[in-house]
Every structure is written in structure tokens, then in C-alpha cells.
Write a structure and sequence with these properties.
This protein has about 280 residues and is an alpha+beta fold. It has two domains: about 120 residues, Orthogonal Bundle (Helix Hairpins), CATH 1.10.287; about 140 residues, Heat Shock Protein 90 (2-Layer Sandwich), CATH 3.30.565.10. The protein is built from five helices and seven strands. The strands form two sheets. It has a five-stranded mixed sheet with strand order 2-4-5-7-6. Strands 1-3 form a two-stranded antiparallel ribbon. Helix 1 runs antiparallel to helix 2. It is elongated, with a radius of gyration of 30 Å.
Length: about 280
């Protein structure tokens, strides 16, 4: 009887050891499977990252190479327009060429800024004394010339000077006002405000028209984003992204508010007067 018990006990021990071995083997296989899947996922991420960087580099190189011939086209067209000896039909055609070349160059500048921001860690700026109110007046004057039927109104209050990159701020104001023109009702004004708030200068650009849907507001400043509603946009969907990059490069903030009840959209930029 005792021998049978010993045999049974030995059999149980063997089964327990076998069960434990199987559990260890199963756990080891699961760890190996997870490790393999993790390595594959990391490899996939590396491939996607390399592909994205190569795509952005290609965009930058292409945009840079296109800027020279387009610049030559624009310069030639501007020269022909300034000479003023063209018949009416040729003058209109040349003006159209100049306008289209200028728009294409703006798109190229946006692509180059996009590539720099993604590969180089942000939009580069060169700070020097600048007046935001004066920059607004200049950009509104330029945009008014190309949109003679729109009311572009400026309200500047107090001192709006600071240590900024004036060229980048001109690009920022141009982007925001052009966006308001594109998406606002054509028979309503675009309102621009430059406000003195002590160590901060505030820029507001507002338009009346179809509001931005709430679900699209969080993506407004993403690259290649396009709003729905309003007038047609001929851009690349990079204007708001680059505007945000310019603001961030100056240590500022930008936000969008859109009201269904008031049918209005306001973009608000807050810029420190100097580098922090």
C-alpha cells in the first residue's frame, strides 16, 4: 500500500514539474512573440519616420528649385508691366501671369517654411525693433489693392512696438487677413486690431461668415488643413500652420474662436514684446 502511495506521489510530482515546464515554455514563447512584435513595430515606425523625412526633404528641395524660374517669370512680367507700352489685351495677360507667379511663389515660401519647421525645429526669426501697427497698415494696404471690393478695417491702440522679426510678422498678418477674406462674407468687413497690453501686444483678425465647425477647431493649425465653407481657397492649407509656427517662434500664442450665433470668427495672437 505504501509503495502505491509512493508511486502516486512520484507521478504527481512529475506531472507538476511537466505542468510547470509547459507554463514556463508558454510564458517564454509569449515573451518572445511580444518582443518580436515590438521589434517589428519599431522597425515600421523607423521606416515611416524615414519616409516622412525624405518626403519633406523632397518637398523642400523641389520648392527651392522652383523658386528661381518662377522668380524670373515674375520679374520679367513686372518689368513689362512697368514699361507701360503693352496693348490692353497683352497688358491683362501679363498682369495675370504676374499675379499667378506671385501666388505660386507664396506657396513655395510656405512649403519651404513647412520643411524648415519640420526638419529644422521651427521657423527661424531675426529679432529687431518693429511696430506691429505699422506692419498691419502695410499688409492691409497690399491686400486692399488686390481686393478693392472688400472693407479691411484697422484699429490700433497704444504702443504696438517690440523686438520681433518684421518680415515674419508681415507674413503672419498677411496669412490671417487673407484667410479672413477667403472665408468671410464678401459684403462684410474684415476687422484687424493691434492692442497694447503692457508686456504683451495683441493682434486680432475677425470676419463675419460661416463659423468653423467645433470639431474642426482643434485641427485648424495643422499642416495641409483646409476649412470648409466660405469662399474657395487657392492655397495649400499651410497658412494657419505657418502662422502658428511664426507665433511660437516669438514665444507667443494663437487661438481661434468661432461663434455660430454671431456668425463670426476671430483669430487672436498674443506676442511678448521681447524674447523671454
Amino acid at each position: 500500500m505504501s509503495a502505491d502511495k509512493d508511486k502516486a506521489s512520484a507521478g504527481n510530482s512529475i506531472r507538476q514539474r511537466d505542468d510547470a515546464r509547459r507554463e514556463r515554455d508558454e510564458a517564454r514563447r509569449e515573451r518572445d512573440d511580444k518582443s518580436t512584435k515590438l521589434e517589428v513595430s519599431r522597425a515600421d515606425v523607423d521606416v515611416l519616420k524615414a519616409t516622412e523625412e525624405l518626403r519633406e526633404l523632397f518637398i523642400g528641395v523641389l520648392a527651392h528649385d522652383l523658386s528661381n524660374p518662377l522668380g524670373a517669370i515674375l520679374s520679367t512680367a513686372d518689368l513689362m508691366l512697368r514699361r507701360g507700352a503693352l496693348p490692353e489685351v497683352e497688358y491683362k495677360a501679363t498682369a495675370h501671369i504676374a499675379s499667378s507667379a506671385a501666388r505660386a511663389l507664396r506657396m513655395i515660401d510656405q512649403l519651404l517654411d513647412f520643411t524648415r519647421s519640420r526638419l529644422g525645429g521651427g521657423v527661424p526669426i531675426r529679432r529687431k525693433p518693429a511696430d506691429l501697427a505699422q506692419i498691419c497698415r502695410q499688409m492691409i494696404g497690399e491686400l486692399q489693392a488686390s481686393h478693392p471690393g472688400r472693407d479691411l478695417l484697422l484699429d490700433a491702440t497704444g504702443s504696438c512696438t517690440g523686438e520681433w522679426d518684421p518680415d515674419r510678422l508681415a507674413q503672419l498678418v498677411g496669412n490671417l487677413v487673407a484667410n479672413a477674406i477667403d472665408h468671410g462674407d464678401p459684403d462684410t468687413p474684415v476687422r484687424v486690431r493691434a492692442l497694447d497690453e503692457g508686456p504683451i501686444v495683441v493682434l486680432e483678425v475677425s470676419n463675419q461668415g460661416a463659423p468653423i465647425p467645433p470639431d474642426l477647431l482643434p485641427t485648424l493649425f495643422e499642416a495641409f488643413h483646409r476649412r470648409t465653407g466660405g469662399g474657395p481657397s487657392r492655397g495649400l492649407g499651410l497658412g494657419m500652420f505657418i502662422s502658428q509656427q511664426i507665433v511660437h517662434a516669438h514665444g507667443g500664442t494663437i487661438r481661434a474662436q468661432s461663434s455660430e450665433r454671431e456668425r463670426s470668427t476671430t483669430l487672436t495672437v498674443r506676442l511678448p514684446r521681447s524674447a523671454r
